Amino acid sequence: MSGHSKFANIxxxxxxxxxxxxxxxxxxxxxxxxxxxxxxxxxxxxxKLRDVVAKAKANNMPNDTIERGIKKAAGNVDAVNYVAAxxxxxxxxxxxxxxxxxxxxxxxxxxxxRNAFTKGHGNVGTTGxxxxxxxxxxxxxxxxxxxxxxxxxxxxxxxxxxxxxxxxEDDSYEIQTSPDDFxxxxxxxxxxxxxxxxxxxxxxxxxxxELTSEEDLKNFNRIIDLLDEDDDVQAVYHNVDL
Length: 242
What we know:
Layout: H1 7-19, H2 21-39, H3 47-58, H4 63-75, E1 83-90, E2 96-103, H5 106-119, E3 123-124, E4 134-143, H6 151-161, E5 165-168, E6 172-177, H7 182-191, E7 198-205, H8 214-228, E8 233-238
Antiparallel strand pairs: 1-2, 1-3, 2-8, 4-6, 4-7, 5-6
């Protein structure tokens, strides 16, 4: 894993999200609503909500927007009827793509996801067809420009907090955890005032694939862009080296 910087991708995503801020806020708003329904509106007693709030802050979501979302969800718990759906499929040249959605209409979402794959010359597969190529991990990325520290000391702090792995890149640090230990590691870093560019449980590919054909890259980007535009889609994971 070391030597493969994710931070360029993170920054690219953030730049896109700055232009489409409404999309990322919609995504996080749904996650807040589901977390509140499952565990209540108090982040101190709801670790899932704490994690969503941390994700919201990493995406520059204003505190009052976060609080409004929690209050709205708490006052309208019965109206929250989102269900989780996961789709797996293949992009150009056999690349692997996983799509996670929260939807109030699974038929609509399935149709939209299938349409996105088709337009990019890919296809939706069966459950499990590509997820075996990924590992579910907690992933925390820190921008070196935002946090000056001694790398060895920082690594020890992360490992002592329960991290599985620590990687240093030219522009960032990446910390990986098991999904179960993610919250405690994130909270330990938060208590030390470590600013996080990304903090979430994600799917990390075991190997990356490079698309050398311009046509393949164009089709792959078409799939990703169409999925990004769909409000039901919460996250898209893939194994393409961008």
